[in-house]
Amino acid sequence: MWTIASLIESIRWCDAEVNSRGNMTYSYYSPGLRYDVDFAPDCQPHWTWYTTAMDGRQFGVWVNQHALTVLTLVSGACWALTECEDFEAFVREMLYLDQKYDESEHNPQDRTAFLVPLTENNE
């Protein structure tokens, strides 16, 4: 069965580079659809769809605040996994995403929620 965990395990075998925000980013080429993540058995409760104006079958962004990780699918074949070392680095990544991707008009989202550290009260 396809899972996000198995995808991430495959991605971590690929070359990584430090992005402009100081976070480790891995790139992996494999056909996929956003629904693979949306309906993966391990998507909930930790992976959250990060809505953008570009969302579609072959594009999606998901955020895992618990693991300080961002997963992106572009053009239905290029996966990117960004891992942040600490919450400060995660906030830098979230601010970058906010600048890079316009918000979805159809699925508005409070993006500031990603800028607040998780506690037992707001998990």
Main β-sheet, in a few words? Answer: 6 strands, antiparallel
CATH architecture: 2-Layer Sandwich
Q: Give the CATH topology.
A: TATA-Binding Protein
Sheet with most strands: strand arrangement: 1-2-6-5-4-3
* CATH class descriptor: Alpha Beta
Q: In percent terms, what proportion of residues is strand? A: 15-25%
How far apart the termini lie comes to: 27 Å
Total individual domains: 1
**Poorly predicted runs:** none
Number of contiguous helices: 3
Mean pLDDT metric = 91
Helix content: 10-25%
How would you classify the helix and strand content by structural class? alpha+beta
Overall 3D shape:
globular
Radius of gyration, whole Å = 14 Å
Report what the structure shows.
The structure is a single chain. The chain is an alpha+beta fold. It has a single domain (4-115), classed as 2-Layer Sandwich (TATA-Binding Protein). Helices cover 22% and strands 24% of the residues. The protein is built from 3 helices and 6 strands. Strands 1-2-6-5-4-3 form a 6-stranded antiparallel β-sheet. The mean pLDDT is 91.
Supply the key terms:
globular, TATA-Binding Protein, alpha+beta, 6 strands, 24% strand, 123 residues
Topology:
Layout: H1 4-11, E1 16-18, E2 24-29, H2 34-38, E3 47-49, E4 60-64, E5 69-74, E6 78-83, H3 87-100
Antiparallel strand pairs: 1-2, 2-6, 3-4, 4-5, 5-6
